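Readers of this paper often ask what the protein records in our data store actually look like. Such a record has a labelled line for the sequence and another for the backbone structure tokens. Nothing more is needed to write down the fold, since each code stands for a local backbone conformation. The record that follows is passed on verbatim for readers who wish to inspect the format.
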Amino acid sequence: MKSILAVAVLCMSVFAAVAAEANKLSETRGTLEKWVEARQLISKTRADWQGDKETIEQTTRMIERELKDVEDKFSKLSTNSAQVEKERSEAEASIKSSHDAIVPAQQFATEFEGKIRAFVPRLPVPLQDILKPLLARLPADPAATKMKAWERVQVLVGILNELDKFNNGVTIFSEKRKNDQGAEVSVETVYVGLGAAYFVNDAGDFAGMGSPGTAGWEWSAKPELAGPVREVLRIYRNERPAKFVSLPVAIK
């Protein structure tokens, strides 16, 4: 009986030891599983962080580039603003300079237009006809005209050019001139600049000369000039070789 009881106690002790070991093993397995899960979680967290880190770094670099672009644009804008301000100042100075120049130009145009109008009646009629289109562009009322100063000066320059061209050349025009009997006769007139002119008709029996006067050109008949004036006309038309032709000049 004692032996059986001893065996029973021994078996119970063994079972208790085995159960205890089994419990320890189970606890160890659970701890290992938790440790493995923790390691996996740490690895996943590290991997996620690595990906997030790269994304954050890329985003940071992109933002930095954008900030740099904004700074560059702002810098250029500041530079451009300074350039615009400089150009605006230069434009204002130019406008002021132009305005300052316009006033004397307008005064000059007004005075010179008056002189031209007073001088025109003293010009040869053919030259007056040449100047008519330009004279028509002169303002009727200089004080109320809307013509710009440069336009007025341009017209005056055109008139002066025509005057200069006529004065520095020899020109021939067909005109009507009254003879001593008051009849109009067709003549050819040779203008030598604005200083003298000579005329003759086809028949050669009516000739004379002219010169500028205070109220216009003054003409006088001089039959003795018919030959020399006709010779000048032939030379002008290349019908005769060039040579000196003596003609009188009226000095007033």
